[in-house]
Protein backbone atom coordinates (compact mmCIF):
# COMPACT_ATOMS: atom_id res chain seq x y z
CA UNK A 1 0.00 0.00 0.00
CA UNK A 2 1.33 3.39 -0.94
CA UNK A 3 1.37 6.09 1.71
CA UNK A 4 1.90 9.85 1.66
CA UNK A 5 0.03 13.11 1.32
CA UNK A 6 -1.10 12.60 -2.28
CA UNK A 7 -4.88 12.33 -2.59
CA UNK A 8 -6.00 10.64 -5.85
CA UNK A 9 -8.17 12.74 -8.11
CA UNK A 10 -11.80 11.79 -8.63
CA UNK A 11 -11.98 8.92 -11.13
CA UNK A 12 -14.39 8.64 -14.01
CA UNK A 13 -15.60 5.28 -12.69
CA UNK A 14 -15.36 2.89 -9.77
CA UNK A 15 -15.45 -0.88 -10.18
CA UNK A 16 -16.55 -2.89 -7.16
CA UNK A 17 -16.12 -6.49 -6.21
CA UNK A 18 -19.35 -7.82 -4.69
CA UNK A 19 -18.73 -10.45 -2.01
CA UNK A 20 -16.71 -9.16 0.92
CA UNK A 21 -16.74 -5.62 -0.47
CA UNK A 22 -20.37 -4.51 -0.81
CA UNK A 23 -22.19 -7.57 0.47
CA UNK A 24 -21.73 -9.49 3.73
CA UNK A 25 -21.60 -12.76 1.87
CA UNK A 26 -21.64 -15.08 4.84
CA UNK A 27 -25.08 -13.83 5.92
CA UNK A 28 -26.55 -15.44 2.80
CA UNK A 29 -23.90 -17.96 1.79
CA UNK A 30 -23.56 -20.11 4.88
CA UNK A 31 -27.23 -21.14 5.23
CA UNK A 32 -27.29 -21.84 1.48
CA UNK A 33 -24.02 -23.79 1.69
CA UNK A 34 -25.31 -26.17 4.36
CA UNK A 35 -28.64 -26.59 2.56
CA UNK A 36 -26.87 -27.38 -0.73
CA UNK A 37 -24.79 -30.12 0.84
CA UNK A 38 -27.87 -31.50 2.57
CA UNK A 39 -29.63 -31.82 -0.78
CA UNK A 40 -26.49 -33.26 -2.38
CA UNK A 41 -26.58 -36.05 0.19
CA UNK A 42 -30.32 -36.59 -0.39
CA UNK A 43 -29.62 -37.01 -4.11
CA UNK A 44 -26.97 -39.62 -3.34
CA UNK A 45 -24.19 -37.61 -4.97
CA UNK A 46 -22.19 -37.20 -1.76
CA UNK A 47 -22.13 -39.11 1.50
CA UNK A 48 -19.61 -37.27 3.65
CA UNK A 49 -19.94 -34.39 6.09
CA UNK A 50 -20.31 -30.81 4.91
CA UNK A 51 -16.78 -29.39 4.51
CA UNK A 52 -15.80 -26.73 7.08
CA UNK A 53 -17.22 -23.26 6.53
CA UNK A 54 -13.69 -21.85 6.55
CA UNK A 55 -13.01 -23.53 3.20
CA UNK A 56 -15.83 -21.81 1.36
CA UNK A 57 -15.25 -18.45 3.07
CA UNK A 58 -11.54 -18.59 2.30
CA UNK A 59 -12.33 -19.28 -1.36
CA UNK A 60 -14.51 -16.23 -1.95
CA UNK A 61 -13.28 -14.21 -4.90
CA UNK A 62 -12.17 -17.27 -6.85
CA UNK A 63 -13.86 -18.64 -9.94
CA UNK A 64 -16.44 -21.27 -8.99
CA UNK A 65 -14.51 -24.13 -10.54
CA UNK A 66 -11.54 -23.24 -8.34
CA UNK A 67 -13.74 -22.85 -5.25
CA UNK A 68 -15.03 -26.41 -5.44
CA UNK A 69 -11.56 -27.77 -6.18
CA UNK A 70 -10.57 -26.29 -2.85
CA UNK A 71 -13.74 -27.06 -0.89
CA UNK A 72 -14.36 -30.61 -2.19
CA UNK A 73 -11.27 -31.69 -4.16
CA UNK A 74 -12.11 -35.40 -4.09
CA UNK A 75 -15.45 -34.99 -5.92
CA UNK A 76 -15.78 -35.34 -9.71
CA UNK A 77 -16.63 -32.34 -11.92
CA UNK A 78 -20.28 -33.44 -12.21
CA UNK A 79 -20.71 -33.03 -8.45
CA UNK A 80 -19.06 -29.61 -8.58
CA UNK A 81 -21.49 -28.51 -11.31
CA UNK A 82 -24.43 -29.75 -9.26
CA UNK A 83 -23.14 -27.77 -6.29
CA UNK A 84 -23.08 -24.67 -8.53
CA UNK A 85 -26.76 -25.20 -9.26
CA UNK A 86 -27.80 -25.97 -5.70
CA UNK A 87 -25.87 -23.13 -4.12
CA UNK A 88 -27.22 -20.59 -6.60
CA UNK A 89 -30.78 -21.86 -6.12
CA UNK A 90 -30.56 -21.63 -2.34
CA UNK A 91 -28.97 -18.19 -2.40
CA UNK A 92 -31.61 -16.80 -4.77
CA UNK A 93 -34.33 -18.23 -2.55
CA UNK A 94 -32.69 -16.56 0.43
CA UNK A 95 -32.54 -13.20 -1.34
CA UNK A 96 -36.25 -13.44 -2.13
CA UNK A 97 -36.87 -13.99 1.57
CA UNK A 98 -34.81 -10.97 2.57
CA UNK A 99 -31.75 -12.89 3.76
CA UNK A 100 -28.38 -11.18 3.42
CA UNK A 101 -26.93 -7.81 4.44
CA UNK A 102 -24.81 -5.07 2.93
CA UNK A 103 -21.86 -3.78 4.91
CA UNK A 104 -22.51 -0.66 6.92
CA UNK A 105 -22.41 2.55 4.93
CA UNK A 106 -22.57 0.88 1.51
CA UNK A 107 -25.93 2.23 0.37
CA UNK A 108 -25.28 5.82 1.52
CA UNK A 109 -21.76 5.87 0.07
CA UNK A 110 -22.88 4.53 -3.30
CA UNK A 111 -25.66 7.12 -3.38
CA UNK A 112 -23.11 9.88 -2.77
CA UNK A 113 -20.70 8.59 -5.42
CA UNK A 114 -23.52 8.32 -7.95
CA UNK A 115 -24.67 11.85 -7.15
CA UNK A 116 -21.13 13.10 -7.77
CA UNK A 117 -21.28 11.73 -11.29
CA UNK A 118 -18.93 8.78 -10.83
CA UNK A 119 -19.91 5.82 -12.99
CA UNK A 120 -20.35 2.69 -10.86
CA UNK A 121 -19.97 -0.95 -11.90
CA UNK A 122 -19.78 -4.36 -10.27
CA UNK A 123 -17.08 -6.79 -11.41
CA UNK A 124 -17.33 -10.22 -9.78
CA UNK A 125 -16.12 -13.75 -10.39
CA UNK A 126 -19.58 -15.04 -9.40
CA UNK A 127 -22.49 -16.40 -11.41
CA UNK A 128 -24.52 -13.98 -13.53
CA UNK A 129 -27.89 -14.36 -11.81
CA UNK A 130 -26.36 -13.99 -8.34
CA UNK A 131 -24.30 -10.92 -9.25
CA UNK A 132 -27.37 -9.19 -10.69
CA UNK A 133 -29.84 -10.25 -8.03
CA UNK A 134 -27.88 -9.24 -4.91
CA UNK A 135 -27.91 -5.50 -5.83
CA UNK A 136 -31.60 -5.68 -6.74
CA UNK A 137 -32.56 -7.45 -3.52
CA UNK A 138 -30.53 -5.08 -1.34
CA UNK A 139 -31.79 -1.90 -3.01
CA UNK A 140 -28.55 -0.62 -4.57
CA UNK A 141 -29.01 -1.67 -8.21
CA UNK A 142 -30.11 1.82 -9.30
CA UNK A 143 -26.66 3.26 -8.63
CA UNK A 144 -24.85 0.96 -11.06
CA UNK A 145 -24.37 1.30 -14.78
CA UNK A 146 -23.50 -2.35 -15.27
CA UNK A 147 -23.04 -5.74 -13.59
CA UNK A 148 -20.15 -7.80 -14.92
CA UNK A 149 -19.60 -11.40 -13.87
CA UNK A 150 -17.32 -14.23 -14.88
CA UNK A 151 -20.44 -16.36 -15.08
CA UNK A 152 -21.92 -14.22 -17.84
CA UNK A 153 -18.82 -13.35 -19.82
CA UNK A 154 -16.90 -16.62 -19.32
CA UNK A 155 -13.70 -14.80 -18.44
CA UNK A 156 -10.82 -16.82 -17.04
CA UNK A 157 -9.69 -14.18 -14.57
CA UNK A 158 -10.83 -10.91 -13.05
CA UNK A 159 -8.06 -9.19 -15.01
CA UNK A 160 -9.86 -10.17 -18.23
CA UNK A 161 -13.28 -9.26 -16.85
CA UNK A 162 -12.16 -5.78 -15.82
CA UNK A 163 -10.42 -5.21 -19.14
CA UNK A 164 -13.63 -6.16 -20.96
CA UNK A 165 -15.65 -3.75 -18.81
CA UNK A 166 -13.25 -0.86 -19.37
CA UNK A 167 -13.17 -1.41 -23.12
CA UNK A 168 -16.94 -1.74 -23.49
CA UNK A 169 -17.64 1.48 -21.62
CA UNK A 170 -14.64 3.44 -22.93
CA UNK A 171 -13.36 4.16 -19.42
CA UNK A 172 -9.92 5.69 -19.12
CA UNK A 173 -9.77 6.50 -15.37
CA UNK A 174 -11.10 4.16 -12.69
CA UNK A 175 -10.61 2.72 -9.23
CA UNK A 176 -10.84 -1.01 -8.53
CA UNK A 177 -12.38 -1.61 -5.08
CA UNK A 178 -12.17 -5.07 -3.55
CA UNK A 179 -11.03 -7.33 -0.75
CA UNK A 180 -9.03 -10.10 -2.43
CA UNK A 181 -5.75 -10.52 -4.28
CA UNK A 182 -7.71 -11.04 -7.52
CA UNK A 183 -9.04 -7.48 -7.17
CA UNK A 184 -5.56 -6.07 -6.59
CA UNK A 185 -4.23 -7.95 -9.60
CA UNK A 186 -7.16 -6.88 -11.80
CA UNK A 187 -6.64 -3.25 -10.89
CA UNK A 188 -2.87 -3.28 -11.20
CA UNK A 189 -2.75 -5.05 -14.55
CA UNK A 190 -5.34 -2.69 -15.98
CA UNK A 191 -3.61 0.46 -14.74
CA UNK A 192 -6.23 1.38 -12.14
CA UNK A 193 -6.00 2.84 -8.65
CA UNK A 194 -6.59 -0.08 -6.26
CA UNK A 195 -8.62 0.30 -3.06
CA UNK A 196 -8.16 -2.60 -0.66
CA UNK A 197 -11.13 -3.35 1.60
CA UNK A 198 -9.92 -4.72 4.91
CA UNK A 199 -13.09 -5.49 6.85
CA UNK A 200 -14.58 -8.78 5.60
CA UNK A 201 -12.11 -11.06 7.39
CA UNK A 202 -11.82 -13.54 4.50
CA UNK A 203 -8.41 -12.54 3.20
CA UNK A 204 -5.01 -14.06 3.91
CA UNK A 205 -2.08 -12.07 5.28
CA UNK A 206 -0.50 -9.94 2.58
CA UNK A 207 -3.37 -10.47 0.17
CA UNK A 208 -3.97 -6.75 -0.29
CA UNK A 209 -0.30 -5.90 -0.75
CA UNK A 210 0.02 -3.71 -3.81
CA UNK A 211 -3.07 -1.61 -3.18
CA UNK A 212 -2.91 2.20 -3.29
CA UNK A 213 -5.52 2.89 -0.61
CA UNK A 214 -6.61 0.74 2.35
CA UNK A 215 -9.99 1.18 4.01
CA UNK A 216 -11.42 -0.53 7.10
CA UNK A 217 -14.96 0.79 6.60
CA UNK A 218 -16.70 1.24 3.27
CA UNK A 219 -17.64 4.87 3.91
CA UNK A 220 -13.93 5.77 4.16
CA UNK A 221 -13.89 5.60 0.37
CA UNK A 222 -15.23 9.14 0.32
CA UNK A 223 -12.31 10.42 2.39
CA UNK A 224 -9.88 9.58 -0.41
CA UNK A 225 -11.60 11.54 -3.15
CA UNK A 226 -10.08 14.88 -4.04
From TrEMBL:
Reply yes or no: does the keyword Hydrolase apply: yes
> What are the record keywords, sorted?
Hydrolase
Domain of life, source organism? Bacteria
Entry's Gene Ontology molecular function annotations: hydrolase activity
Stored Pfam families: Hydrolase
The protein's Enzyme Commission number: 3.-.-.-
Enzyme class, first EC level, given as a word:
hydrolase
What name does this protein carry?
HAD family hydrolase
Q: Which organism is it from?
A: Paenibacillus chartarius
